[in-house]
Amino acid sequence: MKNSTILICVITLSAANPHLSAQGKALDKLPAKVAGLDKNGDGKLSAKELPPGARVKILKEFDLNNDNALDALELRAYLLSVKGEKSSPGKVEIGDKVIIRKDIEYVNGKGYEKGLGKLDLYLPAKAKNFPALIFLHGGGLQAGDKSRLDQVGRRFALCGIAVVAPNYRLSPAVRYPAHIEDAARVFRWAWENIASHGADREKIFIAGGSSGGHLTMLLTLDERFLLKQGLKGSNIRGAIPISGLMDVTRTGQLRRGKVWDDSPEVMKRASPLTWVRKDAPPILILFADGETPERARQNRQVYEALRKTGHQDVTMQILANRTHNTIRPNLSKEGDPGLLAMLAFIKKHTARKPARR
Asked: Of 3, 6, 183, 258, which residue is least crowded by CB atoms under 10 Å?
């Protein structure tokens, strides 16, 4: 794995660098489809150079650094958002380096039939006191399964990090707060049991993609669900929400009344943005440059809100040449920029003791 992969493929936003900055020559040039519009040759398209329709729609949504122009990276974000992207993660071979234990029950009872109360473990073989990463699958809180995380679990275990991949109850059979309650139950299971599998329970991280990213951020910010499990937010060593919805009050009718009660009060409580706080655990926000404008906006908004509260350890990274659906499968690739960002975050926060409340 080379650092140059990160430089070429990842855009980092932090307190010191709040705006997008393209790294590497590959991202400096305007896409060929629109390069002819750059009349003054400055490498970006100003409002005057854009067609009238694009000024209204594309400039408004994709001018991420608010300079009233679209640079090469912003235009690639737009093109990826409308065309989609295929991924080819490949199969991760593990040999005798990873131990896989499937269908471990973390909760049972009515509503948890068909494996909804079970989880899979991916463990580094011949290692001790390693970090653990709870990874919540996506699927809009209405679909999905832990089996989607098999290749990702193998990759992280090869990197010395255990992965806890759970199922959880889904809508429309249940509504909020059932999903987040299950996420808290998974965390309690890991807190009570992960040491018996060789991991260090003081090094439990949580991550998830799409709806799993939403749950990751909600569990991290709204401490009530962990408190009900006899834990607290500071038991989370670090959180990595990937492409999650942060303000579900802006969600369309497809999920209103099915995932959440169609109530302004309920949907506000179910939104991570409602619960931003300065003393939350360290957070790394990841999303694709090919996300829909609304999802990208929400992730930037929660990042900025956390910074305004005085949170000292929140970072946002936008993954180039990715769409909403291609981040997770590509995490299984050695050298993938999303994988490298997550590994660096976990390494950073296991190298020092967390602040306890």
From this structure: 3
